[in-house]
Design a protein that fits this description.
The complex is a heterodimer of chains A (597) and B (305). In chain A, strand 11 and strand 12 form a beta hairpin. Chain A is α/β, with parallel strands linked by helices and 597 residues long. Chain A is built from 20 helices and 22 strands. An 8-stranded mixed sheet of chain A has the order 6-7-8-3-9-10-12-11, with helices on both faces. In chain A, helix 15 (445-455) runs parallel beside helix 17. Chain B is mainly α and 305 residues long. Chain B has a single domain, classed as MetI-like fold (Orthogonal Bundle), CATH 1.10.3720.10. Chain B has helices at 31-36, 39-61, 92-98, 100-127, 131-145, 148-159, 163-190, 193-201, 205-241, 253-260, 269-297. The radius of gyration of chain B is 24 Å and the shape is elongated. Classes of the chains: A alpha/beta (597), B mainly alpha (305). Chains A and B meet through helix 14, helix 15, helix 17 and helix 18 of A and helix 8 and helix 9 of B.
Chain lengths: 597, 305
């Protein structure tokens, strides 16, 4: 049991933690030092590959397959997690320290009723005096996570719950034994903004009320802004900055943190999103100097010596940089964006009239009507299940069950892409959400990008030239044509996918959640690229997203979609600052944003 | 030799146009490359080369004819003969060298046919889910429910031991399993966006099958094809052993075992040689298949966070 009332002992202490690639000796993370007090929430922020999940798992005394904890101390509520054998650790996990994974749907046992699953945690750890006490605790913890605790609800199976409810059950299981520490690994990724807001509020309240410490692992700086008391930023396996949340946002000391804050989308329009080139060094290829030096604009001789230590520059504010608080030029130069004056021609490039789409006979998109003009970007914003993807797939000819009139440059289009002519198909191009899935792994980038031209009947020499040119255009080089997708990073793949979509010079480009699978710095760069291309090529673009803040940098008009209907449609400034509809207001309020200074 | 286990840290992504590595570099390692790094694949390949060499090139070195009587039957020591005579007084060594070709050819042709039909059915079903898919898959279930050897025996006893029939029936027993595996592997691929991208471009169905689906199921398919080859060899040899070979007097490893097993005590070579050959053949294809399966399973090892 936790030492309730005694706050002198930290709930979690990590000191000099080092985790290596097993058998090779390359460090995945090293020199990780921090502690979390009871009732405190620490946000551990980093891009994918930064080692944040590895650190989160180390708090449970666990290392993934292929990784090995080789040094340091991890203490949870007085227990030495690295010195215990597997059986003792198992007894502690769930009781003293618990874990909430990213995907609740995959983490819950689909064959067990949820009441039983929570009860099982309590039984395993002999929580409470008897069965009756445990059943009471199940009811209690359900109400703590704001779920109904009626017998009929407890008898449900995980698949009968929504994603948000599943994650609450995950929280209930984690909080069931009143642990001292709870590790949350991106628990709201994949949830809608409103669901996310509620889950975050639940976590915050539970931690405060029951003096539970939380380590919240995430790639999204905005999520921790309202949740965490302190934030630690990880880069290439090292903590580069740690401090109180407000300090991190108001006065980031490390240039990397500054880039993270600058890359976060902003709803107010006071600043633009700034991306950053390069990638973090992987284990085994990390230099002995500052890891960030290769990407840092502020690099000077001292940076190329040794990796700077994490030193305290103010009370509770630590940074691993030789020139703390210096502002990179590209961020300083990032003035508020000029008002979007885009030359639009009055003729609609894409026009939807009375579009109704259905799935297996059930209508999910109702009477959607709007135009996208030439040279204009319209954002289609909605939560999952709002019908935005069905609508965009219908336009792209990938979903066939729809009625209504869809015209591109004045020509009406058939339902299915198969019934459209080659010219019509090439006039609408589609960029998919996940660049890890949208490129054939067995084909070179050049071949994939060339396909639309080959189908369109372009000659070989001309195709090669156009592919090379297009790759340059999306800031890849022509040399990428010979690479395979698995040799590219996520951002590079998405650039290749954009090149494929644009190579046939389409009239209309549909971008379906194109940045949701990418890290925040990469997202900023991709949005920047799309905005440039859209302006330069005079494209009509439909930018589909669930992320309201990103539309500010790219779209001129916004269509907000809910339950298959367009609930609000208008200029981006108006929708983001003074929305009329209740739904849009709620969406805006629930969207986590990085606080502006 | 051990497989290289790479812990590839997922890179955070490169926003800028930074060229990573040398441009124009090809694919680092293919499945075959990775498979050949495993000892079992190498041993399997070496054994296979030996047996296939014997079966294909053996006839060139056979000192005597297939049905040529050269001495007293069932003698293990005969001057001038390496392994003595069989029950009809024919040269065991010559019959051994001559008897592999038909087994190997039948098995390979049958497997190839099974592969062709199985892959086509499997990919088609994966791409066009619906009534036809259901119908085909349930028919396959029926064929799978019958033991393959029984099925071939029924066909051959009804019609007679014709070459085409042996190949066709063995192919028929191979097809459903390959179709099943192909469909299973392809269903996952069909859901991925690059197939939708090809649909949006209006690629033909055939092209989607061939260029988008097939290359992405080749790994598990290679493994399954190898396994099927192993089983086909077994069936073809069993058929010959049971007396269903196209030429009743012709040399055939299966027939040889059957003919000479009664004289095993006095003249073991007539049984031992073909038995070793068939065993080595199945073991080698098995090892190869296993090697490929392991190399294939390790494709994305350590990739995901």
């Amino acid at each position: 049991m936790t030492a309730s009332g005694v706050t002198t002992t930290s709930a979690l202490t990590m000191a000099g933690l080092r985790i290596e690639v097993d058998g090779r000796g390359h460090d995945i993370v090293d020199e990780v030092d921090f502690s979390i007090e009871p009732g405190e929430v620490l946000g551990l922020v980093g891009e994918s590959g930064s080692g944040k999940t590895t650190v989160g798992l180390a708090a449970l005394g666990h290392a993934r397959r292929g990784a090995k904890i080789t040094g340091g101390v991890v203490t949870v509520d007085g227990h030495d997690m690295l010195g215990l054998d597997e059986n003792s650790l198992r007894a502690l996990r769930g009781r003293v320290v618990s874990y909430v994974p990213q995907d609740p749907g995959a983490a819950l046992n689909p064959a067990l009723r949820i009441g039983k699953q929570i009860l099982e945690v309590l039984e395993t750890h002999h929580f409470g005096a008897d069965d009756k006490a445990r059943r009471e605790r199940v009811t209690e913890v359900m109400s703590e996570v704001l779920l109904p605790s009626t017998p009929s609800f407890l008898k449900r199976y995980p698949h009968q719950l929504s994603g948000g409810q599943q994650q609450r059950v995950g929280l209930a299981m984690a909080f069931a034994c009143r642990p001292a520490l709870i590790v949350l690994d991106e628990p709201t990724t994949g949830l809608d903004v409103s669901t996310q807001a509620h889950v975050l509020a639940t976590v915050r309240d539970l931690c405060r009320e029951h003096q539970v410490a939380a380590l919240y692992v995430t790639h999204d700086l905005a999520v921790v802004a309202n949740l965490a008391d302190r934030v630690a930023v990880m880069y290439a396996g090292r903590v580069v900055e740690e401090g109180p949340t407000m300090t991190i946002f108001a006065a980031p000391a490390h240039p990397y943190t500054r880039y993270l804050v600058a890359a976060a989308p902003d709803m107010t329009g006071d600043r633009i999103m700034v991306g950053l080139a390069g990638r973090a060094p992987a284990p085994g290829s990390r230099p002995s100097s500052c890891f960030f030096a290769a990407r840092c604009e502020l690099v000077h001789a001292e940076c190329l010596g040794e990796l700077p230590p994490l030193r305290e520059i103010a009370h509770g504010h630590k940074v691993r940089c030789t020139v703390p608080f210096a502002v990179p030029a590209s961020i300083e130069a990032a003035d508020p964006p000029p008002p979007l004056v885009i030359e639009t021609r009055p003729d609609a490039a894409l026009s939807l009239a009375d579009i109704c789409a259905s799935y297996t006979g059930i209508e999910v998109v109702h009477n959607v009507t709007f135009d996208v003009q030439r040279g204009e970007c319209v954002a289609l914003v909605g939560e999952s299940g709002s019908g935005k993807s069905t609508l965009s797939k219908s336009i792209g000819g990938l979903h066939h069950e729809w009625t209504g009139t869809l015209t591109v440059s004045g020509r009406p289009l058939a339902q299915s892409s198969r019934d459209r002519s080659t010219k019509e198909r090439l006039a609408i191009q589609y960029v998919f959400q996940n660049p890890y899935q949208s490129l054939n792994p067995r084909r070179t980038i050049g071949d994939s990008v060339a396909r639309p031209l080959v189908i369109g009947g372009t000659g070989k020499a001309e195709t090669t030239r156009a592919v090379g040119e297009m790759l340059e255009r999306v800031s890849l080089t022509a040399g990428y044509a010979h690479k395979y997708p698995d040799q590219l990073s996520g951002g590079e793949r998405q650039r290749a996918a954009i090149a494929r979509a644009l190579v046939s010079k389409p009239d209309v480009l549909i971008c379906d959640e194109v940045t949701s699978a990418l890290d925040v710095l990469v997202q900023a760069a991709i949005i920047d690229l799309l905005a440039d291309l859209q302006r330069d090529l005079g494209l009509a673009m439909l930018f589909v997203t669930h992320n309201l803040p990103v539309v500010r940098s790219i779209a001129r008009r916004v269509a907000v979609m809910a339950d298959g209907k367009i609930v609000e449609f208008g200029p981006v400034e108006k929708i983001l600052t003074e929305p009329e509809q209740e739904y849009t207001k709620r969406l805006l309020a629930d969207t986590p944003v990085v606080p502006t200074l | 030799m051990t497989a290289a286990i790479d812990i590839v840290d997922t890179p955070g992504g490169v926003p800028g146009g930074v060229v990573v590595g040398d441009a124009g570099a090809g694919r680092p390692t293919g499945l075959i490359h990775r498979a050949l790094r495993l000892w079992r694949t190498r041993v399997g390949l070496a054994l296979l080369v030996v047996v296939v060499g014997v079966a294909l090139l053996g006839p060139l070195f056979a000192p005597h004819g297939e049905t040529e009587g050269v001495g007293i039957p069932n003698k293990s020591h005969v001057d001038g003969l390496l392994f003595g005579t069989d029950k009809l007084g024919q040269d065991v060594w010559s019959r051994f060298l001559l008897g592999g070709r038909s087994i190997l050819l039948f098995a390979i042709v049958a497997t190839a046919l099974g592969l062709l039909f199985g892959v086509t059915i499997g990919l088609f079903c994966a791409l066009n889910r619906g009534k036809l898919d259901e119908l085909l898959m349930r028919s396959i279930d029926i064929i799978l429910a019958l033991p393959s050897l029984l099925l071939t025996l029924v066909a051959i006893t009804t019609i007679g031991p014709e070459t085409w029939l042996i190949i066709a029936t063995v192919a028929l027993t191979t097809t459903p399993r390959i179709a099943r595996v192909t469909r299973g592997a392809a269903i996952v691929v069909v859901e991925r966006d690059f197939v939708a991208a090809a649909e949006a471009l209006g690629e033909s169905r055939f092209r989607i099958l061939r260029s988008e689906l097939l290359p992405n199921v080749s790994g598990p398919l290679l493994v399954e094809a190898n396994l099927r080859l192993t089983y086909s060899i077994g069936i073809v040899a069993s058929l010959a052993f049971l007396g269903f070979s196209t030429d009743a007097n012709g040399a055939n490893w299966g027939t040889m075992i059957q003919e000479n097993r009664l004289a095993l005590a006095v003249q073991p070579w007539g049984v031992v040689l073909p038995t070793i050959a068939i065993a080595v053949l199945t073991i080698s294809t098995g090892l190869l298949g296993d090697g490929f399966a392991r190399a294939n399973a390790g494709i994305d090892r350590g990739r995901s966070e």
